[in-house]
Amino acid sequence: MLEHAKPDQLVELVLPFLWVAISDGRAPANICVDACLTLRNTYGQLGVRAGLLPVTVAIRKKDGTGTLYGSLTPTWTGTSWNGHCALVLPDSESLVDPTIEQFDEVRKIGMGPMVGEVTMSTHENGSMVESGTHVAMQRADLTLTYTAAGPEAVASILEHPEAITHTDGHRRTGMNTASLTLAALRAEGVRERAMPAPHPRLHALLEAVGEAPYAADEAQDMRFRLPDQSGQE
Questions:
Q1: CA 42 to centroid of chain Cα atoms
Q2: How many whole angstroms separate alpha carbon 7 and alpha carbon 18?
């Protein structure tokens, strides 16, 4: 992805794949809400607008059989949200589904997160995608059809105590993921492709960290070790 993604799509595509690589083996598969709340923070740190997009996703095989996941009117059962969530990136008109491989039939193909185009909404209620919008994508012999839920479904996430309780954790993890993204994007042969991306904040951060080394501190937060005015780190 770092080698072949177009500059204007580089950040949008790299982040969900990086999140999967970081969380692989250390997090359950069905954590779409946590993944999206974390990545929303990560995108924001790098200057990319991102919003939650609760959806249903119908996964159909060539023979027409398939399964519908998620709900247009999702609810909570204890600490579990009974729905499916993706992200929408309005500036690039993209849908990002970082946890699509929680579904067995998609995981068997082994191509990672799903990223595709979506039509933006012009409604005045603040929603980025109109309720009921369909987005069809192909993965191998599977057809994935996403249907956007309404703003009430977004509120069911953001206003729930479970999400509110973990707000700081999602922000912290999002910032750490952003730091690792910067480290990846400043690599030789990649930085030159990242700088034309239409994200001024990303440019400023890449300039700020330069070639400074980075490491995790005692709290396991990523720190770039920059010199101060006296030359101390």
A1: 8
A2: 17
